[in-house]
Amino acid sequence: xxxxxxxxxxxxxxxxxxxxxxxxxxxxxxxxxxxxxxxxxxxxxxxxxxxxxxxxxxxxxxxxxxxxxxxxxxxxxxxxxxxxxxxxxxxxxxxxxxxxxxxxxxxxxxxxxxxxxxxxxxxxxxxxxxxxxxxxxxxxxxxxxxxxxxxxxxxxxxxxxxxxxxxxxxxxxxxxxxxxxxxxxxxxxxxxxxxxxxxxxxxxxxxxxxxxxxxxxxxxxxxxxxxxxxxxxxxxxx
Length: 238
Known about the structure:
With about 240 residues, this protein is of the alpha/beta class. The chain has seven helices and 15 strands.
């Protein structure tokens, strides 16, 4: 995908700035552009069709601000450019303490905006090992906001009736769905080792004939009927 085909979402309630930014992007051949005025609408867009980049003002229509948007989108790893009239350094520090963002103070030049966008996309395109390019799944959290969970970060998965639990080093995430309906979202790194457990093979630290030790020192029992397939997956010949 060329850089100019990237999807850009503008979150701005000032119609004049929206029109100006649209013109600036079109002149730079960024044509895949949409705009909303509230954080709620931006979150809906991200849940259905996540953009490649977000440009957002801080002070918007409704109760939620651009800072709230940055907080709620932490799990998505979507690059964000904050635009604002405020020159408050404490506000800048507050936003950066949540997530590293790009920051433009109004009024800014068209070249400054395009340069920021191009630098972000070039950094992502030229770093294929970046987390922006790793396989992920979207999971709806308790605030009904979709979070991007990178499969590399998932250590193991536990199944209990109609619930599936994902474990990372820091979190436990619950999904109200069976493993059968969820497993198609996984990649080949995940291996079934028990009727109730799948493990991410990249996080296997040690194993015996009875259990696996993961990188966080959690032990997972190996079911007898899964030993042969496990050895095959890990290319173990003994």
